[in-house]
Amino acid sequence: MAQDPYATLGVARGASEKDIKSAYRKLAKELHPDHNQDNPKAAERFSEVTRAYDLLSDKDKRARFDRGEIDIDGNPAFAGGAGFGGGGFGGGQRGFRPEDFGGGGAGVDIGDIFEGLFGGRGPGAGMGGGLGGGGGFGGRGRQAPRGADVRYRLAVSLPDAAIAASQRLTLSDGKTIDLKLPAGLEDGIQMRLAGKGEPGPGGAGDALVTIQIQPHPFFTRDGDDIRLDLPVGLGEAVHGAKVKVPTVEGAVMLSVAAGSSSGRVLRLKGRGFTRKDGTRGDQLVKLEIALPAAGSAAAQDLAQRLEGWTDSADIRARLGS
């Protein structure tokens, strides 16, 4: 039975994009293979959850699924989602029966009906054995099996994930391909590469690539934004300065206003993660005033400069102290 992506993620059919993303993130975190190495069922469930999110996060595919045009894998679905064998042409709950053609089948030439529909000579001719013989319409049951799917894990740096940079992937046969990362990339998402799996009599299987976004030494992700704690000297904070700030696409110059305090957050527009619509989140830079290490020459120099100086401002007034 085809899976229902809504049920897989545990959301209602009318769920918003935000609810779908939230449900996926929660399940992906619980079921991620790295956290369930001794639980193969969790890995299978993780794959199902990722496949469901791939469909529902795509507006066009979701709409087509809701209309019954495709299944969870994006394959075309027959009327009623049941195909020829499950629900008949009308998408009901039963297949063909003789009485459907009138009079319990008596006096009715079913062959004439099929000839009109398919241009053939009836259900037993030219259709791979007819209704009951071997494979149903077109000999479907006789199709040769496809090759096995092959699973990969691809480690992607946070900067590459943010800008959806192409990645080089080496396949099991030794060949390499350049994999284009999708916009709106999430950790744990699974990409399907058709025909890149094991060969088989009925064609090659697929490659299933699970993306793992690697932790970064100083960047952290916050939704579509990227956060960075930036050390600044006391003189830079007091007098103001232009300082060099790293971003996922290289360093830029950032203006620090005079009198800036630790904890102040500055925003670099469009320096975050690429969204599905092609726009970018921001980079949020939090200032951290770094004082010289105790006992260092710089600390001694600062102490001499501040000797006899006191701050007249009541900096803790809002705390009631």
Q: Which strand-content bin applies to the residues?
A: 15-25%
What is the CATH superfamily of the largest domain? DnaJ domain
Compute the average pLDDT: 80
CATH class descriptor name of the largest domain:
Mainly Alpha
The structural domain count equals: 3
Basic shape: elongated
Provide the succession of SSEs: HHHHHHEHEEEEEEHEEEEH
Q: Which runs of at least 5 residues are low in confidence (pLDDT < 50)?
A: 79-140
Radius of gyration: 31 Å
The termini sit apart by 67 Å
Residues in helix, %: 25-40%
CATH architecture of the largest domain: Orthogonal Bundle
Structural classification: alpha+beta
Number of helices: 9
Widest β-sheet, arrangement of strands: 6-7-11-10
Q: What do we call the CATH topology of the largest domain?
A: Helix Hairpins
Biggest beta-sheet profile? 4 strands, mixed
Tell me the total number of β-strands: 11
Overview of the structural elements:
The chain has 321 residues and is α+β, with helices and mostly antiparallel strands. The chain folds into 3 domains: 1-96 and 131-135, DnaJ domain (Helix Hairpins, Orthogonal Bundle), CATH 1.10.287.110; 150-213, Urease metallochaperone UreE, N-terminal domain (HSP40/DNAj peptide-binding domain, Sandwich); 220-306, Sandwich (HSP40/DNAj peptide-binding domain), CATH 2.60.260. 25% of the residues lie in helices and 19% in strands. It has helices at residues 5-9, 17-31, 40-56, 59-66, 83-87, 110-118, 158-163, 234-239, 297-306; strands at 150-156, 167-170, 176-179, 190-193, 207-213, 220-222, 225-233, 241-245, 252-256, 265-268, 283-290. It has a 4-stranded mixed β-sheet. A 3-stranded mixed β-sheet has the order 1-5-4. Strands 2-3 form a two-stranded antiparallel ribbon. A hairpin with a 5-residue loop joins strand 2 (167-170) and strand 3. The chain is elongated. It starts with a helix and ends in a 15-residue tail after the last helix. Mean pLDDT is 80; it is low at 79-140.
